[in-house]
């Protein structure tokens, strides 16, 4: 059974969705870089081991990432799932976990990499928005996209309403993508290619909320 570690920084609603899903992998541990993250409470309630590795206590990104890497090795982790983990990872860490680490981002990548995605979508006046699950590579929010949840931006949407609506989609597509990795429906090959049901995945599997 695939062993999963989830990395968090905040509320952890995506962690909750992953814990609630009947995954064929096992979540063996949760790491937070913030001791006050509510995600830690959620994990504890579910009986999952947690550890806090506060980035502020380390002289640089590499030193912090080294400690995380060691913890992941101690847990014998096969898959690292970033769920609202708000730290940029060092190139070395990403290389160590390439093909074994996924992230969820609140936009339809490649659009709106980085922060404040809902605000930027509203500012531009886009009619579609959503979220993307992707493999993590050294370039920020640029690894191969696996799944996307898509919604129509409503005339009356605000940053908060979009955040809520995108979260609902996230809680659907993230457990699904993680399950596909756990059960082998999605495979990451050594040459970097991704297969879905044995076929080359050229674009993300899309779920539309309309
Ligand atoms: C989610 O919307 C996720 O897409 C976003 O943080 C939120 C975490 O919510 N991630 C990023 O912005 C990463 N670049 P949660 O703590 O309730 O799961």
SSE layout and pairings?
Layout: E1 3-8, H1 13-20, E2 26-32, H2 38-45, E3 50-52, H3 61-74, E4 79-82, H4 91-96, E5 101-105, H5 117-124, E6 128-135, E7 145-152, H6 159-182, E8 186-188, E9 194-196, E10 199-200, E11 205-208
Parallel strand pairs: 1-2, 1-4, 2-3, 4-5, 7-11
Antiparallel strand pairs: 5-6, 6-7, 8-9, 9-10
Helix pairs in contact: 1-6
Bound molecules: glycinamide ribonucleotide (GAR).
Could you walk me through the main structural features you see in this protein, from its secondary elements to its overall organization?
This protein has 210 residues and is an alpha/beta fold. The chain folds into two domains: 1-97, Rossmann fold, CATH 3.40.50; 103-210, 3-Layer(aba) Sandwich (Rossmann fold), CATH 3.40.50.170. The chain is built from six helices and eleven strands. The chain has helices at 13-20, 38-45, 61-74, 91-96, 117-124, 159-182, and strands at residues 3-8, 26-32, 50-52, 79-82, 101-105, 128-135, 145-152, 186-188, 194-196, 199-200, 205-208. The strands form two sheets. An eight-stranded mixed beta sheet has the order 3-2-1-4-5-6-7-11, with helices on one face. Strands 8-9-10 form a three-stranded antiparallel beta sheet. Helix 4 links the parallel strand 4 and strand 5. Helix 1 (13-20) packs parallel to helix 6. The protein starts with a strand and ends with a strand. 39% of the residues are buried. The model has no long low-confidence stretch (mean pLDDT 97). Glycinamide ribonucleotide binds at residues 10-14, 83-84, 104-106, 131, 167, 170. Glycinamide ribonucleotide is lined by residues 10-14, 83-84, 104-106, 131, 167, 170.
